[in-house]
Task: structure prediction
Amino acid sequence: MSAPAGNSAPVAVVTGAARGIGRGIALVLGEAGATVYVTDRESREHRHSDLPGTVEDTAEQVTERGGRGIAVPLDHRDDAAVAALFDRVRAEHGGLDLLVANACNGNALPFTPGVPFWELPLEHWPNLMEVGVRSHLVSAWHAAPLLVERRGLLVVTGYADERSEVVGHVFFDLAMNGVTRLARTLAHDLRPHGVTVLGLAPGFTATEAIVAALGANPPGADSQEFPGRALRALLEDPEVARHSGRMLPVAEVAAEYGLTDVPAAPAAGGA
Result:
């Protein structure tokens, strides 16, 4: 990862990074020496889940890996707080090299396969569409001028299913297809300004939620850091713009760049 001219390290914002995919991405960016603003509503002062991990834990781990982690406790339903985050990034750095829009609340409610949509709670909608598709868009809206300053990279995380089958349930399927379209439409608007936009679709990953449900080292699961390794390869590729507008499965990125997974990182700290 090359630092932009006049800056000691690339500057990134990773949303929804107290645990899960966002945490793994932030840790890999820390190893690359990046300054990473880590956002999440899960903080040491305000806990919303029994799962391990807070925004402060991840930021400290980013610093331990060699980067500079900055914890920003933030609920992405709060537009004013999101605006304040990017105002802070502008004041402190003048631009942004990478936004990873990852915040989502898709695991907040259990899902039983085979249950018809009319028997699912409507709370799935705000959890996936508001803290998910909309929060990706709002973060991108605020980040876009900063990314233009650095000709940066904007990544939205989602799910890719090339079989075009229903993914999970109706709310999840709508949200993930929405993220895929969001990558395409944001790329359309930002491409003329030198900013590359793409989607990154992790596979089955040993997140804290998966480990809690299935136990440590579930068979066939990628480590939390595997999506981060894929993202770093894309970020360091001077020809990354060829992927603009696409939703890229992590496995496809790994095959292209010759990546292998790493042993699962320790569970996120803090309680």
